[in-house]
Amino acid sequence: MSVVTHQGIIAPALWPNNLGRSDSGPFAEMQLEDDWRYVPESYEGLCDSLLVVKKGDDDGDVAWSSRALVHHPQVLPIDMRAQMRPFVVVLQGFLGDFNISPLGNWDNLTSLLRRDRSAHAAVQYVTLESGGGAGIPFNAQVDVLNNLRAFIRAKVGAELDEEREGERDMDHIVLERSVFTKVRPSGTQAPAVRLSTASDPGGKAMKLAKVWRVDHVIQTGARQENGQTMAIVPTALRRGDFVEVSVFAEIQYGRRQRRTGSVVRFAMKEVVRLWSAEDAAVSDLLPA
Hints:
By secondary structure, the protein is an alpha+beta fold. About 15% of the residues lie in helices and about 30% in strands. The protein has five helices and 14 strands. It has helices at about 45-50, 105-110, 115-120, 135-155, 280-285, and strands spanning about 1-5, 5, 10, 50-55, 65-70, 90-100, 125-130, 170-180, 180, 210-215, 220-225, 230, 240-255, 260-275. The strands form three sheets. Strands 1, 4, 5, 6, 7, 8, 11, 12, 13 and 14 form a ten-stranded mixed beta sheet that branches. Strand 11 and strand 12 (about 230) form a beta hairpin.
């Protein structure tokens, strides 16, 4: 897991009043020799430290294929170079609009699109907000995501979602993860997760399982005073909570409307509440 820096200081340490809790969680045991875990601040540095590779479960689908963002072996310790190591970065901010339920916004799309298209379009999402008074750590995160997006475009191709080109909102970070994974005729794929009746009323997602499967659950937790993370249910999170999100790049390459290019999302792996909305009230913890 990697962390954003600004002028050599990790971003979690730059939030006021210890909001970022840089003395706990994944940062507490970081050593200087773990330099591969510090995200380069420049675009050129990213180019030297990352690779875009085909995913192992890609069976050569001519329509769409998956890519993964991994650490370049040359930046890893020698004993870690035998296998590709996915690039995962930690982001922090105040929780805005979010839906990280197993089926995300799929239920809202089923009435608008036919079943196959709605499954392809369904996402889980999280919006991180700056809080308005902590520009340096949040802006550093925005800069890194824009550099990552530019790097991926250079390696895979221009984005088919044109509104994302040049995206640069310094007060919000929008994260999205595809709900469903297309079932491929060959190759290794992650197994489907078992959905409860509460998560999948009527078993609608189960009926798609031969074509589209749900193969992940976004982990949710709360950081305790001792630095340990306790698992919590997603519904325990509230807008305004100050959270830490582990993020990876979800990259698809293919054709849409006679254009070839990429679709890039920064997807959530885990969401951890560092402070509740009440404890992290903007008016109390951020400078005016």
